[in-house]
Amino acid sequence: MFKKMFAAAVLLIITTAIFVVQAVEKDEVESHPVNQTGLGIGLKAPDFELKNLQGETVKLSDYSGKKVMLNFWATWCPPCKAEMPDIQKFYTQRGNEIVILAVNIDPQSDVAGFAEEMRVNFPILLDVNEKASNDYQIITIPTTFFIDEEGIIRNKYLSAMSLEIMNQYIDEM
After folding, report:
1. Which residues are known to be catalytic?
2. What is the rounded CA–CA span in Å between residue 55 and residue 119?
3. Which of 21, 68, 75, 80 is surrounded by the fewest CB atoms within 10 Å?
């Protein structure tokens, strides 16, 4: 009788351990939505040339030697809209340490009206021909790249970001 109870207890412990290990591995994968699609970390960020809302030409290479947060978004995207207030706070708090470039992928929409409604004043660029979106292999939005002073992608985030994540990623660069 004791042997059966002991065997059952050992089996229960092993089964529990397997479930715990699988749950931890699943959490690790789901908690890092940063590398699943698109251009990879450690690569040179492709240069681009886009117009801003004022019609001025902006190139990524204009910001060589500076940290850049490059965000791809659209006016119709609920998660994009949700992260705009935090991007604005981040820009207000740390805009002297990092360049923020928000690349809009639906320039046929009223992007300027959207920016005014959201009360954002960080630079918004218009990807009219989808060249930047294609170069950065954008599949989902929002997608944000964190580019170091040498133009290397040091991190990226797929989904709406919080102010805490923005601060964390910049502090890690």
Report:
1. 80
2. 19
3. 21
State both tokens at 134.
């294609």
The CA distance from 104 to 22, in Å, is 39
Sheet of strand 49-52, all strands in order from the earlier edge strand to the far edge? 57-59, 49-52, 124-126, 98-104, 67-73, 143-147, 153-158
Look at the pTM and tell me if it is higher than 0.70: yes
Using an 8 Å Cβ cutoff, are 152 and 44 in contact? yes
- Tell me the Cα Rg of the chain: 21
C-alpha closest to that of 164 among 105, 64, 83:
83
The residues pairing with 71 across neighbouring beta strands, listed in sequence order, are 102, 144
Per-residue pLDDT of the chain (173 residues; tens, 9 = 90+): 656 665 555 555 655 556 555 655 544 433 344 445 567 899 999 999 999 999 999 999 999 999 999 999 999 999 999 999 999 999 999 989 999 999 999 999 999 999 999 999 999 999 999 999 999 999 999 999 999 999 999 999 999 999 999 999 999 98
